[in-house]
Write a structure and sequence with these properties.
Layout: E1 10-13, H1 29-42, E2 46-50, H2 56-68, E3 73-79, H3 82-91, E4 98-105, H4 108-115, H5 119-136, E5 140-145, H6 152-165, E6 169-174, H7 181-194, E7 202-207, H8 214-224, E8 228-231, H9 245-254, H10 270-281, H11 302-310, H12 338-347, H13 354-370, H14 376-387, E9 394-402, E10 409-417, E11 420-428, H15 431-442, E12 448-456, E13 465-473, E14 476-484, H16 487-509
Parallel strand pairs: 1-2, 1-8, 2-3, 3-4, 4-5, 5-6, 6-7, 7-8
Antiparallel strand pairs: 9-10, 10-11, 12-13, 13-14
The structure holds 3-methyl-2-oxobutanoic acid and zinc ion.
């Protein structure tokens, strides 16, 4: 019988690694660092920051996240290749609590087709890689890729071998989202009873959502003996995604009768983190998504509304406040001073440098002039918009558009490029098209537009628009964000932000290739 702590579930967040593997969900270094800090503040136990050997960018992300995260464990993924393990160890060197996470496939199909290895070779690779990882760091996780389609005898041998070599966590991924909840529970129970040294490691589950069962399977894994759950914010991840952190945590919190466990997650941070991840990745959260969808706490039918007014428990199994969804609070108006603004930012969890504060304050004043009521969400959108503008070879100066039902629609755009102002006027198929054509004329690139998405920050026709623009160049995608009460200005800001990020990316990969 396992001597693991029975009632506490460690939350391992892999938004920055598996989440980033969603096509189009690329995040830059600053964004990853911001997300990591927010995850740590929310109480995530382990943050998987990347796959150090995958690219110089991933190495840097693991390294930078390792520098800023103090309480949570920081993990880097690694194959069993010894050079991978060393790179993971190097990237994690600044971490207060590093973890090397090693993965190799154990199913007959993956071993034969993908690895082209015999089972004995796989076992040897587990021994060699985990032993090296333990030399580099005390905390080593070993994952059996495609575990749910692996033969039980072999899976048990692999887990036992990994623990003997020094693994402290054994992770059982449902890599292809194939398992059913009953299978998963039985699989974990089987491992608990058959792996002789299982009490020396924490058992972990990592479920994908191909059949929409990732959360159900993760909860079943806990019942079967898992004490660590790997998941992502908003459930983003490869294909149909990973188990959603917020759903697992709220299921445990809401149903202590069925799930008598605890997590360290401060659930009132859930809405904020969900919003941050969706803004950064450009992956909108579907309206009816559990916990964080726009309609998760909205009641439309008359009967429901009547019940809610009499007693919220009639139709609400958890409160909106418990996930950090509060009534939008009115912030300051146009007469508010810089000091009050700084205090407000602090309340919202932002500490800006003097220059950024100055610029954001200026934009707040302009917004307060235009908009009757300025809400917390407006301030967050403004700050997010300002924070993403750290590196700016291209700056938005001004835009005039002509639009409406009698064409032609035109955009007259001024941008500052490397300190010099340029203007271009263009026609287009609508004002957005005209504005984007003007950007391309002023700064031609080979990058192609993959996504254009608009979201209203608050309600009302004077709401700020928050726009995401996704560009693709040489197979790499970049998301740019922009916010403004004018949707077309927000769109141009988002496009310009994406271009600036693209230039940073180019500079990192080829310092010489700085021209458009
Ligand atoms: O889905 C999977 O198998 C993984 C492993 C790397 C843990 O993401
Ligand atoms: Zn995965």
């Amino acid at each position: 019988m396992s001597t693991q702590i029975r009632d506490h579930i460690k939350i391992f967040d892999t938004t920055l690694r598996d989440g980033e593997q969603s096509p189009g969900a690329s995040m830059n270094l600053d964004e990853k660092v911001r997300i990591a800090k927010t995850l740590e503040a929310m109480g995530v136990d382990i943050i998987e920051a990347g796959f150090a050997v995958a690219s110089p960018g991933d190495f840097e992300s693991v390294q930078e996240v390792s520098k800023v995260v103090k309480d949570a464990v920081v993990a880097s993924l690694s194959r069993t290749v010894l050079e991978d393990v060393r790179r993971a160890g190097q990237a994690l060197r600044p971490a207060a609590r590093p973890r090397i996470h090693i993965v190799i496939a154990t199913s007959p199909l993956h071993m034969r087709v993908k690895l082209q290895m015999e089972p004995e070779e796989v076992l040897q690779q587990i021994v060699d890689s985990v032993t090296l990882a333990r030399d580099l760091c005390d905390d080593v996780e070993w994952s059996a890729e495609d575990a749910t389609r692996s033969e039980h005898d072999f899976l048990c041998r692999c887990a036992e071998t990994a623990i003997k070599a020094g693994a402290t966590t054994i992770n059982i991924p449902d890599t292809v989202g194939y398992a059913m909840p009953d299978d998963i529970q039985a699989l974990f129970e089987m491992l608990c009873s058959r792996v002789p040294n299982i009490d020396k490691a924490t058992l972990s589950a990592h479920c994908h959502n191909d059949l929409g069962l990732a959360v159900a399977n993760s909860l079943a894994a806990i019942k079967g003996g898992a004490r660590q759950i790997e998941c992502t914010i908003n459930g983003i991840g490869e294909r149909a995604g990973n188990a959603a952190l917020e759903e697992i945590v709220m299921a445990i919190r809401t149903r202590p009768d069925a799930m008598p466990y605890t997590t360290n997650i401060e659930t009132t941070d859930i809405t904020k983190v969900s919003k941050l991840v969706s803004t950064v990745t450009g992956f909108a959260v579907q309206n009816n998504k559990a916990i964080v969808g726009a309609n998760a706490f909205a009641h439309e039918s008359g009967i429901h509304q009547d019940g809610i007014l009499k007693d919220a428990k009639t139709y609400e199994i958890m409160t909106p406040e418990s996930v950090g969804l509060t009534e939008s609070s009115l912030v300051m108006g146009k007469h508010s001073g810089r000091h009050a603004f700084r205090e407000k930012l602090k309340d919202l969890g932002y500490e800006l440098g003097d220059n950024q504060l100055q610029d954001t304050f200026k934009r707040f004043k302009i917004l307060a002039d235009k908009k009757k009521t300025v809400f917390d969400e407006d301030i967050v959108a403004l700050v997010d918009d300002e924070v993403v503008r750290d590196f700016q070879r291209i700056k938005f100066i001004s835009l005039q558009v002509v639009c409406g039902s009698t064409g032609p629609q035109t955009a007259d755009l001024s941008l500052e490029i490397d300190g010099e102002e340029f203007t271009h006027k263009c026609e287009g198929n609508g004002p957005i098209d005209a504005a984007f054509r003007a950007i391309k004329a002023l700064f031609p690139t080979t990058a192609s537009l993959q996504l254009y998405q608009v979201h209203a920050v608050t309600r009302g026709t004077d709401a700020q628009a928050e726009v995401t623009v996704r560009l693709e160049e040489d197979g790499k995608t970049i998301n740019g964000q922009g916010a403004d009460p004018d949707t077309i200005v927000a769109s141009v800001r988002a496009y310009v932000n994406a271009l600036n990020k693209l230039l940073v990316k180019r500079e990192k990969t080829a310092p010489a290739a700085l021209s458009a």
